[in-house]
Amino acid sequence: MTDPQPPIQLLGCGPASTPDCGAYAGCLVMPVPVPGGLLAAVQAEWDLIDNGQPPEQDGLPRPWEPATCTAPALREQLWDWLEKFVQWANNEHLWDPADLIPPCWPRHPPLVHEVAVLAEQRRRAGRTSNPAALDQWQTQTLPAFLTRSRERVRRHCATDHQPTPAAPALSRFQGTAEVAARRSSFKRDVASRYAVSRE
């Protein structure tokens, strides 16, 4: 297992004498975090596919869909990159405390899915030769994400992590009786389609 890189230090960056800013001390803006080598290679292959080259392998992981990144080293680099991306986005693009991506984002599957897509879209927007894609990310993609994030999680985790308020409903959904009822509905539907196809 590779050691993940330490998290980037963004908040509080300012004068060149600020020790936690490293090479970017005094900079007005910070660069978008760069993924590790394995993750970068997967992303580079997707860039080639998007430009019309056939894939070199079947089942290529899709970093914007974390569940497809099953190799431990790749998954570790994905989490490291997404964590750095969230820190970067909070520091570089968000001003209002209500908009900040909460520190407990990895404990909320809806945010994990959203952050992965947001980060990949930003990476791709930054690679184009035309600033229109980056403008779209800044004026449409990011604000839409923030609206969804605020509605889904932020109001519950403004000061501390809270488990999902949907826990009772999820428990009922996964209960034996409800699962059996849904399966029965599916079977009746399929049986009715077979009956229609025989006519």
How does the overall form come out from the CA principal axes?
Answer: globular
Q: Please report the distance between the alpha carbons of the first and last residues.
A: 60 Å
Largest sheet: none
List the domain count as a whole number.
2
- Would you list the SSEs in sequence order as H and E? HHHHHH
Number of strands: 0
Integer average pLDDT: 83
CA gyration radius, whole angstroms: 21 Å
How many individual helices? 6
**Structural class, please?**
mainly alpha
What level of helicity do the residues show?
Answer: 40-55%
Unreliable spans are: 9-20
Strand content: under 5%
Architecture overview:
This protein has 199 residues and is an all-alpha fold. The protein folds into 2 domains: 19-165, no CATH class; 167-199. Helix content is 54%, strand content 0%. The protein contains 6 helices and no strands. It has helices at residues 37-50, 72-92, 109-127, 132-154, 167-174, 176-198. Helix 3 (109-127) runs antiparallel to helix 4 (132-154). The longest helix has 23 residues, at 132-154. Residues 9-20 have low confidence and may be disordered.
